[in-house]
Amino acid sequence: MSYLALYRKWRPKTFGDLVGQDHVVRTLKNALEKNKVSHAYLFSGVRGTGKTSTAKILSKALNCLNMVGGEPCNQCANCLKINEGSFMDIIEIDAASNRGIDEIRDLREKIKFMPVEGLVKVYIIDEVHMLTGEAFNALLKTLEEPPGHIVFILATTEPHKIPLTILSRCQKFDFHKIPNDLLIERLKLIVADSQGEIEDEAIVLIAKLSGGGLRDAISLLDQCLTSYDHRITTEDVSQIAGIVDDQMIIALFKSIANKNINQVMSIYEEIKEKGKSTGQLLHDLIEGFKNLMIIKSVKDASKFIVASAETIEELKNIADMFIEDEVLAYIYSLAELESRIKYSIHPDLLLEVELIRLVGGTKKAGPKLPKIKEEDEAIAEEKTPVLKEEDLVAEPTIEEAIVKKKLERSKEDLSLSKLWDRFIKVINEKNKTLNAYYKEVSHKELEGNKLKVYFEDKYEFHKLRAESPENLKVAEDFLREIAGKKIQLEIFINKIEVKKEKTAEDKLTEIFGDSITYIDE
Description:
Helix content is 53%, strand content 9%. The protein is an alpha/beta fold and 521 residues long. α20 (416-430) packs across α21 (432-438) and α21 (432-438) packs across α22 (460-466). The longest helix is centred in the middle third of the chain and has 20 residues, at 278-297. It is flat.
């Protein structure tokens, strides 16, 4: 196999070749020039933005014999071996397949040895977030105090999964998505070098589909150049990528705006026949409505829409056919469908039904009213009172009526035992602290709208905490919620009186009263 994929052929060999990561290049070149290279780096960002390429360039610069201005020379023996992939002191590890503690222990044993042929031994650990917790712990001490001849470069697309103890021991660089104008410029350069032909709109579409990753853009371009011998069009790119052509999306938007269900379904069937992904179509629809919203809201909308000038003009004409609230409703409805469609075995059916609902503007059916005879219309108008807007009350649904009725029944004729049982159940669910106090209540009484509770002497602390203003208010709010009316809560200590044995005098007083005269003999 003599053919080299374009993304490998165009892999950056110097910092100057990197696209869209000037903040990273500037810092690393300064560190190399001033000999202030850290022992550990963490490169994070979405795929295809240059993390691994930067790690290799940094490794090459650290081992270059004739480095100038922070750039490797690509001519010395070390640089040539590194470019060929045969340099022994740059070790690349895929953490996705070497994620266990045994692999990291093996690494810790090997870092003790000095470089074989270079100046520095560099370990590049790709997708480092895939390491296990035990592996991270094993790596921790090594990252904190590595030997002077070791540099670690960690790369990841998910930095939030890396322990903070690891992050704090690395210099962190965030790799940004590459702007579309830089992607387009680089793609045009590659096309010219490959002696191919491609329309400008097709290059714009490739840049849009890459999502800010240069590698994805170059790979798609490589596939297009390989597949077609003629000048590549947007339709060719759409066919390769399995997406819906912009013109077909525009035609679909026009049909939706005109509320033409037959035409919408015809276009949808045509899209399905071409084997387009339902998920991709749904994404394109949401993206398209987003662009319409931008056009309606922003003056210079072309700056924020990745599309050809011709497509943007067509979108501007379509935007006048919608109102803003309508566009927002479509976006929210389709976005909700996007979250549900992932778990459906019939995603195309769901999208089809949603398009019919949106275009048809289906509403809930109201009650049918009896027809009024013509001669009765005048009388009806005279007798019908004019209602103000605030007097209009929507009819409750069946479910709302049932819930309301149950609530009314639950608040009727609450006995003391039912009220107390529900009160204890509510505070047990919503306020464990109150529950701890009130479960020690020894006696309670309900007198009208007043609930009296009693604690024994030994639970005086519970009584004091329960009658604090904040706790008392919470408890009364719960009672109001349960009973449907205000219940005043009063809290007492239940004083237990010690009964004295009655004397003969006491017994006589009980029988004859206080008017007893005692005669001395």
